[in-house]
Amino acid sequence: MFLPAIISFILLIIAITLDNYINKDWFKGYFRIAWYLIAYLPVGFPVIKQAIESIIKKDIFSEFLLMTIATIGAFAIGEYPEGVAVMLFYAVGEVFQTLAVKRAKSNIKSLLDQRPDEVTIIENNIPKTVKAEAVNIGDIIQLKPGEKLGLDGTLISDRASFNTAALTGESKPDSIVKDETVLAGMINLNTVSQVKVTTAYQDSKLSKILELVQNATSQKAPTELFIRKFAKIYTPIVVLLAVLITIIPYFFVDDYVFSNWLYRALVFLVISCPCALVISIPLGYFGGIGAASKNGILFKGSNFLDVIATIQNVVMDKTGTMTEGVFKVQEVVFNSDIDKDEILKYINVLESKSTHPVATAIHEFVGKIDHSIKLENVDEIAGHGLKATINEKELLVGNFKLMDKFSIAYDIDPSSIVYTLIAVAYDKKFVGFLTIADSIKQDAQETINKLNALNVKTTMLSGDKTNVVKFVADKLGIANAFGDLLPEDKVNKVKEITSRNETVVFVGDGVNDAPVVALSNVGIAMGGLGSDATIETADVVIQDDKPSKIPMAINIGKQTKKIVWQNIILAFSVKAIVLILGAGGLATMWEAVFADVGVALLAILNAVRIQRMKF
Fold first, then answer.
1. Annotated catalytic residue: which of 139, 317, 544, 545?
2. For this structure, is 544 an active site residue?
3. Phi, psi of 337 (to 5 degrees)
4. 556: closest CA among 221, 211, 284?
5. How far apart are the C-alpha atoms of 472 and 415, rounded to whole Å?
């Protein structure tokens, strides 16, 4: 990458030495011009070629055209060393920019794409090393302690401990038991384990995350889009001003010398090149996306980094967001005149049709599903529960709103119990209820404290009982809490906030809450380690389900925006000063080079800085 610049630099140094220190009679006239032209071509030809290609694509006033006009103009007025030097430094600056972008991309790739190229599979009870791409679904991978898993699969061994840092940013060991999912990039920590492959190499979770992060910059932030639009208007104005700087003094200056004023105009052109902005701003956003992915937060576009930096409200779901989402049955309170075990069997079969965490809790409490029990007319009623027919009798399992909906009379006050209640009715009669409890996540309190410190208002919305939601909200210090909500009620609550012209982040599971996610300015999904659907739905995905990553995401957005604006102010300030000096004849091409290439390099170094920050 540096070879053309090195050749050009050596030829330029020889020419300057022959011009100023070793005066040779033969280094004059056409031979001197040809020497400087040969020194110019290695660095100048690629830029001239790109300027022509841009013109063909109707992008006439590009930075390549500015540099071409300025350096060819320098040759036209006999300033050969400066013409070569400007293009040489510009070329070196472009190489450094390319290296910075490549480094930023490779940093992100190394963070995420940690899969081994080869894996050990068991074939006829014999270990065999093969390329990871060649492994088929259903193959058994043998994983020694310290080895990384190459493909997604399920654990066949009874138990194993894994480092999940590649996926979540957290190096804390994660214990996985038989038949649970393990993902590419996880590192086996203790015993030799066996994993059955469930996903092709190119379809693994890590591949999708890597693709998502690498493509995130295709969704431009408003600042980035503005700078690109600005450059398209700004560049032709600069060219026009350069022409005017050359011509207008003719009518007002007594000792007008065309070559002097043309030189000033050419300096003006070099200074005004917008490459510092055009390169460093996208790199700043790319750095923010990389810093977030390093911490297990996936942004789907740089536009979301911009929005989240100015967020005023965080609206969150309760179950699985601020609480573990791991329910346990606490007690079963049934009428004395019914067969408790039989009803529990019925409930277990019915709940097996649902993926809700409550269903899992009931299944774990009751045990094996009795497949001899036949269900008919199974219906899931959103925000209420489940309904089915067993033995030609109607079974209802859900919240007390379900009882009200079907006019089932009950003799308890649900609001008096600070637990999630599952009401049960059979054959048009209320038979009792189960109480289910969920524990608050360890970092939930820290999350709310940090959001309060950022002056972000917090609201909890849940389909769970109002008194349960209020209990959790009060414990954590969440400002507003609403329970007993249907999906459309959540939408209305968020609309209330947006109607006040306030920005909203909604944090939920990203699938059931799709309408609210779509309505909010930024939708954050607690993606966990297994849900592809959440990655598809949300704008931001928190991979390890930790709510403390919400204020971290906001902070990364704020720092990214800060760095981007630092670069904009730096570029404009330096350029404005040197432009005025250049137009007044007080700045030479050397100052122009600093204002262009120097500022670009400073801005790039500043943009890369975000990837080293601690959040």
1. 317
2. no
3. -90, 10
4. 284
5. 14
